[in-house]
Structure formats: structure tokens, C-alpha cells
């Protein structure tokens, strides 16, 4: 995965985590604030409910106690004032339950027994009955199927808030309200619905900014990567356009300096190599004929002799000498002799095997030819081909004295020997020289083969 992809992903992930963290803490904070607000509201409702007429509550509490411990059939007669007080307390309960989110409201006596009770399911019904019946004498509201003296059952789930009913230091009873927990959930959900769009907008803007931020870094890095690959492929002229003075700009300038130094060093190395090749050529090649000089030729011959002995392969050597070369120098001058030497060098190169045989200028008018992997018969054939190539056509030259153009025919004598077993370099050369001497003795312009002495 490239940096162009990884950097936006990492930045976007960090932004997402940051926004999620901020959202989480905002929701928790909102939950705390709403919880505190709900607590204050519940406590206030309980205190308001506890602010009812103490005389009315005391009267109704005694009636409830009488019903619990006295006449459970409710056959006793209650005064009209008792009904009036009951209506007052019931109205307070109805008003409390009518508040948003209140599940139930209860009056307890000083012993903790319920006196009057109302929940959201019966609040309006009881209110309507009280309003319709007015002061008509009837059985107490305690007998209502939804009243507190019916089976209270399990208390509803929710947040409970209790406040005492006091007369001086004495506690007459308690007022309690129970608030629906879904009120808090709805409040949190409403807050969340307000926060989420904001967080979503922040997240979208942050992701967009992260993409722009990543492009700000990845585009110069990608450009630098492209130029680095071009530099690695050998284009030392490549340079980066630096547009900033920050760390990326510094990196680009360092890259350009490195490329410049590489280009300069490479140029210096190439100049050195050219000079080394020139010096090597001067040290190993004859300036007149272009053939190997004697010293370098002998190094190559010694290496090839060791190889032929190690692998038991034949190695032949030709020693060639121009016939009557002194006469040419005396007749036509030394420049003409140079022309002859260059011409014979070219004809030797043509007559031998390119890439296999090696030719060296051994002395003034003497040449040596190394024939690797060549036995006596093949060596003699090559020697004859070389000899005939030299003498087949006359050599054209300008007379140093008369200024006219002359043609002379030049011949060579060739001595041939072959190493088939372990021998020394000196012995190989001496045998080839002996064969050349015999060719000269036997009339020149001929090839003579002489075997190495065992």
C-alpha cells in the first residue's frame, strides 16, 4: 500500500476517533446535565406535593388507619369534611401526575403505609369523577378500583423522589413521585439527534481537510519518488523542482545536490576511464602497427600456456620475420619501412582467426602469432595462409627520395611450433625461433614446423 493511500487512511482514522471521542464525552456530559435536571425536577415535584394541607392529610391518614385496623368493610360513615379533604389530596395527586413524565404520585402515612395513590392511567378518570360528583355523599375514593387501598402491586420502574410532610419537628407522612426513566432517555436521544449532525459535519470537513493535507505531503513525495526511480535507472540529469522551504523542500534540495554530485562524479569517472584506456592502449599496443607490444603479448602467451597445460589442450606459436627488411629501409627509407610494417600487420590480422588468435609485434620486423586450441597441422595451414596473404599483393608506397609512387613485393618467413605437454614459455619461444631460423636458412618465404624436444 502506497503512502498516497496510507496517509489519508491514517489521518481519517485519527479524525474519526477524535470525533467519536468528542461525541462520546459530549453525550456523557449531556446525560449528566439532563440527569441533574431530572433530579432537581423530581425533588421539586415531591416538595410541591408535600406542600398540601396538613390538616386534610392528617384526617385522611386517620381514616386510612381506621380502615386498616378497624372496619375493613368500609361500612362506617365519613363526614362531609373528610370527603372534601380527600378531594383536595386527590387533586394534588392528579396535578402531580399530570406533569410530563410522572408515572405515579403517592401519599404515605407516618408508618410508611400508602394513603392515596394515583398513576398516569387513572389520573384523568379520577379527576373527572371528582368534578362530576362534587359534594354528593358516597363511598370514599378509597373504594375506587384504582385507588391506593386496592392492591398497590409492584411499584413502577423509574426515578423515585420523596419529601416529608412536616408540622414543626413532627413528620406526618411522606409525598412521593416516580418519574418515567424514558424521559431521560428521550432527552438524551433528542440531544443526540442535535449533536450527531454537527459531529457528522465536523467529520466530513475533517476528512476533506485530511485529504487535502495528505495531498500536500504525498504529491511532493510522489514527485520525488518518480525522480529517484529515474535517477536509479541512470538518468543523472534529473532534478526536482523545489517549491517550498520546509522539510520537503529541504529533501528536494538535498536530492538535487546528490544528483549533481553523482553526475559530476560519474563524469570524472568517465574521464578517468578514458584516460586509463588511453594509457592501457599505450602500454599494451604498438603505436605504429596497433598490435600488442612484446611485453603484453608474452603475458597473454604465458597465461594461455598455463591454461593449455592445465586442460591438456594444444597451443601453437608462429614467429614471423620480414625477408630483406633492411634492404627496404636502405632503398626506400625508414618511413617506407613503417608503411611495410603497418601493411603486414593488417594482412596478418585478416589472415588469422578473429577473436581467437592473438598477434604481437615481437621486435623491429618480427611478429608473433598465438594460436590457442591449435595442433601442428592446423598451425601449419594458418602459417601458410599468413605467408601467402603477405606476399600475394605488392605494397604501394611513396619513395622518400623521388616522390613517385612505387610498389614492392614483401615476403615473410614463418617458424611454427606446438606445445602438447607441459613446457616452459622460454622453451616454446626458443623452439619457434629455431623453426624461423630454419625457414630463413632454407631460402626464406616459407613456413617451417619444428616440434618441441621431449
**Beta-strand content:** 15-25%
The largest pleated sheet is described as: 5 strands, mixed
* CATH homology superfamily name of the largest domain: Reverse transcriptase/Diguanylate cyclase domain
Number of strands: 11
User: Strands of the largest sheet, in order across it?
Assistant: 6-7-5-10-11
| Helical percentage | 55-70%
Task: Give the low-confidence spans.
Answer: 72-76, 123-156, 399-403
The CATH topology of the largest domain is: Alpha-Beta Plaits
| Topology order in helix (H) and strand (E) letters | HHHEEHEEHHHEHHEEHEEEHE
What's the tally of helices? 11
- CATH class assignment of the largest domain: Alpha Beta
Tally of structural domains: 3
End-to-end distance, in Å? 74 Å
CATH architecture annotation name of the largest domain: 2-Layer Sandwich
For the residues shown, what is the average pLDDT?
Answer: 80
- Cα gyration radius (Å): 62 Å
**Structural category:** alpha+beta
Inertia-based shape: rod-shaped
Task: Give an overview in words.
This protein has 454 residues and is α+β, with helices and mostly antiparallel strands. It has 3 domains: 50-180, Beta-Lactamase (2-Layer Sandwich); 234-282, no CATH class; 294-449, Alpha-Beta Plaits (2-Layer Sandwich), CATH 3.30.70. 57% of the residues lie in helices and 16% in strands. The chain is built from 11 helices and 11 strands. The protein has a 5-stranded mixed β-sheet with strand order 6-7-5-10-11, sandwiched between helices. A 4-stranded antiparallel β-sheet has the order 2-1-4-3, with helices on one face. A hairpin with a 6-residue loop joins strand 8 and strand 9 (405-408). Helix 3 (80-97) runs antiparallel to helix 4 (123-133). It is rod-shaped. The protein starts with a helix and ends in a 5-residue tail after the last strand. Residues 72-76, 123-156 and 399-403 have low confidence and may be disordered.
Amino acid at each position: 500500500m502506497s503512502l498516497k493511500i496510507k496517509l489519508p487512511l491514517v489521518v481519517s482514522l485519527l479524525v474519526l476517533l477524535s470525533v467519536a471521542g468528542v461525541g462520546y464525552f459530549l453525550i456523557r456530559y449531556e446525560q449528566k446535565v439532563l440527569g441533574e435536571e431530572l433530579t432537581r425536577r423530581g425533588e421539586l415535584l415531591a416538595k410541591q406535593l408535600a406542600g398540601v394541607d396538613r390538616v386534610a392529610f392528617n384526617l385522611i391518614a386517620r381514616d386510612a388507619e381506621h380502615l386498616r385496623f378497624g372496619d375493613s368493610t368500609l361500612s362506617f360513615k365519613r363526614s362531609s369534611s373528610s370527603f372534601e379533604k380527600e378531594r383536595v389530596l386527590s387533586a394534588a395527586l392528579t396535578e402531580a401526575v399530570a406533569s410530563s413524565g410522572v408515572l405515579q404520585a403517592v401519599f404515605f402515612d407516618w408508618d410508611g403505609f400508602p394513603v392515596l395513590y394515583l398513576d398516569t392511567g387513572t389520573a384523568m378518570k379520577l379527576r373527572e369523577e371528582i368534578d362530576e360528583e362534587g359534594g354528593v355523599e358516597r363511598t370514599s375514593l378509597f373504594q375506587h378500583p384504582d385507588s391506593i387501598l386496592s392492591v398497590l402491586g409492584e411499584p413502577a420502574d423509574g426515578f423515585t423522589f420523596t419529601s416529608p410532610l412536616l408540622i414543626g419537628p413532627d413528620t406526618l407522612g411522606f409525598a412521593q413521585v416516580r418519574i418515567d426513566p424514558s424521559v431521560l432517555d428521550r432527552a438524551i436521544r433528542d440531544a443526540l439527534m442535535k449533536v450527531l449532525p454537527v459531529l457528522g459535519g465536523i467529520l466530513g470537513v475533517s476528512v476533506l481537510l485530511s485529504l487535502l493535507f495528505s495531498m500536500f505531503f504525498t504529491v511532493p513525495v510522489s514527485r520525488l519518488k518518480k525522480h529517484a526511480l529515474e535517477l536509479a535507472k541512470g538518468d543523472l540529469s534529473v532534478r526536482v523542482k523545489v517549491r517550498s522551504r520546509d522539510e520537503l523542500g529541504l529533501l528536494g534540495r538535498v536530492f538535487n545536490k546528490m544528483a549533481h554530485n553523482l553526475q559530476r562524479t560519474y563524469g570524472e569517472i568517465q574521464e578517468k576511464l578514458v584516460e586509463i584506456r588511453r594509457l592501457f592502449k599505450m602500454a599494451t599496443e604498438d603505436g605504429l602497427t596497433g598490435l600488442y607490444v612484446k611485453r603484453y603479448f608474452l603475458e597473454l602467451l604465458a597465461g594461455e600456456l598455463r591454461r593449455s597445460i592445465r586442460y591438456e589442450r594444444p597451443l601453437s606459436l608462429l614467429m614471423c620475420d620480414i625477408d630483406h627488411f633492411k634492404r627496404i629501409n636502405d632503398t626506400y627509407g625508414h618511413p617506407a619501412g613503417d608503411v611495410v610494417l603497418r601493411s603486414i600487420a593488417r594482412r596478418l590480422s585478416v589472415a588469422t582467426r578473429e577473436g581467437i588468435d592473438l598477434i604481437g609485434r615481437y621486435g623491429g620486423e618480427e611478429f608473433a602469432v598465438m594460436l590457442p586450441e591449435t595442433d601442428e597441422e592446423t598451425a601449419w595451414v594458418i602459417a601458410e595462409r599468413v605467408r601467402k596473404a603477405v606476399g600475394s599483393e605488392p605494397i604501394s608506397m611513396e619513395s622518400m627520395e623521388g616522390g613517385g609512387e612505387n610498389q614492392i613485393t614483401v615476403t615473410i618467413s614463418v617458424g611454427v611450433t606446438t606445445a602438447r605437454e607441459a613446457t616452459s614459455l622460454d622453451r616454446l619461444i626458443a623452439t619457434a625461433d629455431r623453426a624461423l631460423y630454419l625457414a630463413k636458412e632454407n631460402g626464406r618465404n616459407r613456413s617451417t614446423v619444428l616440434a618441441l624436444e621431449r
